[in-house]
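Page 42, continued from yesterday. The earlier attempt failed because a stray header line got pasted into the input along with the sequence. Redoing it now with the clean sequence only.
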Amino acid sequence: MNRIMKLSGVMLFILVFSTSLTVSAGTLPSARPEKMGFSSDRLERIHELMKRNIDDGNFAGAVTVVARHGRIVHFETHGMMDVGAEKPMAKDAIFRIMSMTKPVVGVSILMLMEEGKVRLDDRVSKFIPEFKDLKVAVPLPSPPPSPFAPPSNVPAEPRFYIMPADREVTVRDLLTHTSGVVSGPISMSQNAKVNYKEGETVGDYIPRLGTVPLEFQPGTKWAYSAQAGIDTLVHIVEIVSGQAYDDFIQQRLFKTLEMKDTCFYPAETLNSRIATLYSKTPQGLQIRDNPPFMNGTYLSGGGGLFSTAGDYLRFGQMLANGGELEGKRVLGRRTIEMMRSIHIPDTLPGRRPGEGYGLTVRVISDAGAAGTALSNGSFGWSGAFGTHFWVDPEENIVAVLMTQGGSIGLTADFEMAVMQAVVD
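This time it went through. Structure tokens are written below.
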């Protein structure tokens, strides 16, 4: 049962702040910031940023970690992991990383591409026949409201007609959010009629998308498919590999990278390490339930994974290293370069200035236009509950932010707090 809780007094200011960079086994080695071209004093601004957000009641706590040249220069906890229990945040706290699951799915598809089992321009219908003859929704204007109709808070169902798609949806479309699969108001309203139900798997649900019209002609715009598009890729991985997706990534990725606390459904023995999920309300932070797709059986590539800051740092460092970590190779260097290349320019409708899009990651194409301190070519993604990561290949930096609340502008502020500390 949800409870309303206010951060006050000691709760607000408890910041478990580690000045030592000694970390648990499995994380990256550490180094003094100055040896890696950082200012220790300037890195303190990350702590100050998190404290301001905690003071403002945006979230209860966070974990932040930064590495350069493969060595950790900053790894800190901030605030509370559970306010009601007065439990300080821990470095090994487990977070719902939501859309930071998507780059993991992207890596999974790239693994199968390296094996010659999937191609970027493969039609999705090659794997899922129900995607063969998808239709495209064309919106119609809404009729004027009747002066005699009683007022209603229920939004009117979108009006549209359908037409054939100019071409089929491809794997590349799904990886770059240019597919039109459940990507806007019409497709979302129609998807609600066929959406997954409790106890169903990705394989049960995804074929039903064949009855849902696309939001637009494939490839004509960028519009975020928050769940369905990437879940379709999960189903492709399962079909091609012959494995359930959680088994595939556990064996092929998490075990290789020693990401020991990353999974879809943490064991009950890990419950004490899961950070409490909150929403900000006028009355303070309120505990909220997990999203409905975190139901024990549905493996959502759009946002289903739990992870820790240390685990995800290892994933990011693998990307920064060109596909390998500590002598264990996940992908080839050229494959990583393909992942972080700009497949969708910022000129395509839907993209922000200076931000192109790669394969499940945004890519900074013009730092000035994007208004970011990151280098051109930096890539990464975020999650709905305040998680964020990026890799800056030019500066050889990997940074991860984990929280369970977030605030407007937090990710950009975190990027600035890290990059302003680079002094070499």
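Notes: The CA atoms of residues 201 and 298 lie 5 Å apart.
Reminder to self: strip header lines before submitting.
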